[in-house]
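Ticket reopened. Same input as before:
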Amino acid sequence: MTATGSDPKQIRMNLFEMCCVSHITHGMWVHPENTRHRFNELKYWLELAQLLEYGTFDALFLADVIGTYDTFRGGPETALAEGMQIPNNDPIMHVPAMAAVTDRLGFAVTCSTTYEPPFSFARRMSTVDHLTSGRIGWNVVTSYLPNAARNFGYEDEVEHDNRYERADEYLEVVYKLWEGSWDDDAVLVDREHRVYTDPTKVHYINHDGRYFKVAGPHLSEPSPQRTPVIFQAGVSEAGRKFAGKHAEAIFLGGESVEQTRHFVEDIRGVARSQGRDADDVKFFPSVNIIVGRDADEVAKKVSDYERLRSVEGYLAHWDSRFDLTAYPRDTPIKTLADSRPDGERLTARFRRFQTVGEALDSIGALNRPFSVAGTPDVVADRLVEWVDTTGVDGFNVIQHLTPGTAQDVIELVIPELRRRGRFRHAYDDEGPGTTLRERLFGTGQARLKPTHPGAAFRNLADTHPS
Amino acid sequence: MTATGSDPKQIRMNLFEMCCVSHITHGMWVHPENTRHRFNELKYWLELAQLLEYGTFDALFLADVIGTYDTFRGGPETALAEGMQIPNNDPIMHVPAMAAVTDRLGFAVTCSTTYEPPFSFARRMSTVDHLTSGRIGWNVVTSYLPNAARNFGYEDEVEHDNRYERADEYLEVVYKLWEGSWDDDAVLVDREHRVYTDPTKVHYINHDGRYFKVAGPHLSEPSPQRTPVIFQAGVSEAGRKFAGKHAEAIFLGGESVEQTRHFVEDIRGVARSQGRDADDVKFFPSVNIIVGRDADEVAKKVSDYERLRSVEGYLAHWDSRFDLTAYPRDTPIKTLADSRPDGERLTARFRRFQTVGEALDSIGALNRPFSVAGTPDVVADRLVEWVDTTGVDGFNVIQHLTPGTAQDVIELVIPELRRRGRFRHAYDDEGPGTTLRERLFGTGQARLKPTHPGAAFRNLADTHPS
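Engineering reply: fixed in the latest deploy. New output:
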């Protein structure tokens, strides 16, 4: 798994964002240099996209929730006061505008399979793939907020494993639309014979499953990537099976270095068992980078962060379903998990702590896995070590300040990684391919590999609705 | 109704578009100067938006269908060959990008109340209202294509009046989210006290109706217009009632001048009966403008249009549910309508013809209502006459060539209307307001009027979910 000196793995950077004030470093929005309160402005996003393209990032990753964190202390008050993921805006609406001011930067957007009809969703993604010239990825989530369920007519959240079964069928539907409904040579644009599309090469999908019934045909003509690059972020047992089957890239978060290596190997094993190559899945753990030109600058940034971080914000976020403040500090995490129907999730979230008190004290602190504070050489050492020991392909950068964190990474860290031969100098270093899938897998790889399960739906029979 | 010389009504222009090759002037896409085959490209839309803003248009109106016209001759073949509204892309995805290259142009986007969950739709529109700084309108449709129903798990189209009942509740839900869920002074952005939102000023909506159950709170903070400008396009009995109640602007199409005057008066009457002002609804019939610098140029354009228009394309479009070619030419329209369960719609569509043969010959021809071909003075005469005799507020320009038709209107027609004092010279002529609602109703009118039914949901009680 360790890269050899002769063939060092290039490190990739993505920026972790969300269309809200307080995404994941709660409390930091009040820092005078932070511009996150501008998230409703289009220019905020255009400037950020241009900055990331200047830094030759792979992609901007946009998280999302379609509900409010309102279980902590029995209401949404903490989330609202903290700006914690509410208010928020629909991430995908920002992408074509950012594509208008960039040429190479990719975009990975979170959309849930639980609440949006697959037919209109499939057209939405195809539209964005056209408008971005093939630079879109889809972070497949199944949603988990109880409030989200109640915004869509359900009494409470959909049961976890059932959500993955439904998601599996949802993917089948959209693969049929994206990969199977239009043949590669369907669109003729033949002015002389006045034929735009050859009707014999467009197909109904006539999907009739357990959860969905969709006739087709797909409305958009084939886009550069057809299926957007499939991202995934879950590491539950069901989530890893799903990821090994479908995902082309995986965002990890909160796991230890050791756990990360385990998940990378586990999911690559699932991929192989599905007939895919281990290398068909890229991994990006989220990383906290605090970098300064010297020790004083680093100390100042760490101090700002520690001073401003809002434990309340983290509690409302991380403890959305587990209000740890309701239990005695010396309660063992294991005891608590055993006593709750959602114990598996609680364990997954807090597995590295013994007691409720330890878990509470750690929330939002910098001593998390994949956190580093230091001068550029220290940070570069750590990033290289993490890549070489865990098998990940790069990182998903958590922002303390926008755009300050990305500026720091671009001005201080990436030049150091370039000196070490571990980061591209320009997108063209890897060839002329401009789609997101080519960014990840190489020029010429704009489409799903033939071994990906979505490719199985490429040759649909020409059927009319029954 | 006729404007007086001292106070002539300013004429407004909108451009009628759709994210597809052949929207409504079927066959014209093959014209060598037409660029509609570029509709998948972001640059096509950016250039068009910039052109319209240069011409001081009110808005770009984007039509949409979420299915395929596949009833004509029993299949989708004609629609596909003609590029007739398939392939098509999701219109709203284009808007923020166009907003990035314009400052004043409005956008009216078609979205159906039948197939998208209201909660995520409401956030999508709020997001776009933020990103466009308040330049978004929503053309409310209930969808009618049988294939669209089958793309969303239904066996066939939802029954017409029932669709409007459902639409009425859908609007109630989104009004609650847009107007009632967040108080005007909810967002504090108070860095000193570390409070982004005052939690006491954000409300669940707890909607529990016949068709929808939605908890809230709304996810986006208040946007410049909150509720997008409500557009409507139906003229059935149920459609007009709906329009008089909800619509702030109405697109008309295909009706005679006499019928148009009747609909304008009828819908304004409904508005008054709902406690609104007659002037709270603006009317824009679609208009065919063929303009040239001299008679030869006009004749050449008319000849091109007549030569290229595809009767097949029009048949597949207009006759989606009425394949008139299946009946003898001398069949009276009335007899045919009486024999069909959808006779009311057939009558509405073809009321100005006696027989099937007459209706067939007229399809796509230029001798339709609100069609004019001539030099700029001839065109201006007609436009002014239509406005002054029917009470409409301007037009929705149908394109024969993109961008040729809009260029012609901007270069030849608008200057003539300006000379007559009937068209703005600059957006600022009407004041500094930049939102779409202010464009229509004046600076300071960014929000729904208090008499609009959506305004009734402004003061929701602060309720937690039961």
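Residues 183 and 201 of chain A are 5 Å apart (CA to CA). Chain A touches chain B through 79 residues (CB under 8 Å). Please confirm and we'll close it.
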